[in-house]
Design a protein that fits this description.
Elements (H helix, E strand, L loop, with lengths): L9 E2 L2 E10 L2 E8 L5 E8 L6 H11 L9 E7 L2 E7 L5 H8 L18 H20 L2 E2 L8 E3 L8 E3 L6 E2 L28 H4 L7 H16 L15 H13 L2 H4 L5 H12 L8 H14 L17 H11 L1
Antiparallel strand pairs: 1-2, 2-3, 3-4, 4-6, 5-6, 7-10, 8-9
Bound molecules: adenosine-5'-triphosphate and magnesium ion.
């Protein structure tokens, strides 16, 4: 992930420090405001780039102002050949924690991908927070449409127990702000892919349906299952899905893997959640509170407390849960 060389070191009132990432909508830097003496995350895009990603993000962050777990929009602007968007600076993504810190599965065939698994307490805590984020953005009429591990960031201390949702480049409103009418159902042609190959819902990826609230929820379900099953979702095993052969494999694997096969060996709540998302009607509102309660109860059953806070690395297992894990593995 190299930093584009042509972006100047100073952009308006911002001094660009560390390069944090580059993706489809530009490059992101940790940047220092030379007058206010504060730090932000600055997303920079060439003005000539025809996609309207930064403009979409500006609209979304404005609509989502004051939502918990959504970074605050600090500024937007244009200087020379560049447009930029400044938002609150955050910590690492769940993707980088997953890649770096999870344990290899002993005895599992290894290739270049980490054969990783996150513990149940952590995954329940991520479930509750991500469902809450999705609920609050939907409450404001916004769909994210690109939920994946790289777009879920942990706050900086003292806010490291909060998971943030970023990157609204693919976002959209699902209802008309004036009339409240839901966007019309559409079967898309093969057009541009919306979202992330690994985590986009089956309805959008395999059946080319227009994304709606159910599809943001399904992306959350796939993220949770990916974190919990050894080796992650089966369609992620070959890594980068942008090569044609891998893209076809990801598509086929996602279309034909049954939820009960995908979730074998993990608590049935995850399979139920995935199935529920897939069964929702296009215009339906997901039952966010039900699923938050389900994952809270699951955590309690295993003896985990203080579940609303994300803690990484995970605290030691409570005694009861250690006994349950031992019983399950015998
Ligand atoms: N507010 C932030 N604080 C800290 N790091 C950030 C912040 N925003 C973005 N990043 C880093 O930059 C990366 C890319 O950001 P973002 O997802 O917004 O860009 P993108 O161009 O849409 O990327 P992609 O196409 O890969 O999704 C993130 O994965 C994260 O590592
Ligand atoms: Mg992103």
């Amino acid at each position: 992930m190299s930093k584009p060389k042509t972006i100047p070191r100073v952009l308006g009132e911002y001094w660009l420090e560390e390069h944090l990432g580059t993706g489809s909508s530009g490059s992101v830097f940790k940047a220092y405001h030379l007058k206010k003496h504060t730090r932000v995350a600055l997303k920079v895009q060439r003005k000539t780039l025809t996609n309207a990603h930064l403009d979409k993000e500006k609209i979304a962050y404005s609509l989502l102002r004051t939502c918990k777990g959504i970074p605050t929009l600090r500024a937007t602007g244009a200087i020379g050949r560049w447009k930029y968007l400044a938002i609150g600076l955050l910590g690492p993504s769940l993707e980088s924690l997953y890649q770096k810190d999870t344990k290899p599965i002993v005895g599992f065939l290894t290739d270049t991908k980490p054969r990783a698994i996150m513990d149940l307490r952590t995954v329940c805590s991520i479930a509750i927070q991500l469902i809450s984020r999705v609920q609050s953005i939907h409450d404001r009429g916004v769909l994210h449409r690109d939920i994946h591990l790289g777009n879920c960031l942990v706050g900086l201390p003292p806010d490291e127990g909060t998971i943030y949702l970023i990157d609204f480049a693919f976002s959209n409103c699902y209802e008309d702000p004036k009339t409240g009418q839901h966007i019309p159902y559409q079967q898309r042609d093969q057009g541009p892919f919306v979202g992330n190959y690994f985590f986009t819902s089956k309805n959008v990826h395999c059946h080319l349906k227009e994304p709606a609230r159910r599809d943001d929820m399904e992306a959350v379900a796939l993220v949770l299952i990916h974190l919990l099953i050894p080796g992650g979702l089966p369609w992620t095993i070959y890594g980068d899905p942008h090569a044609n052969a891998i893209m076809d494999f990801v598509h086929a694997s996602k279309c034909y893997t049954l939820p009960e096969d995908l979730c074998r060996g993990i608590p049935s709540e995850f399979k139920d959640f995935l199935q529920d998302c897939r069964q929702l009607k296009f215009t339906a509102s997901p039952d966010y509170d039900h699923w938050k309660n389900t994952f809270r109860q699951l955590a309690q059953t295993h003896g985990f407390s203080n579940i609303d806070r994300f803690i990484w690395p995970p605290p030691p297992l409570p005694l009861e849960s250690t006994k349950t894990s031992l019983r399950l593995s015998l």
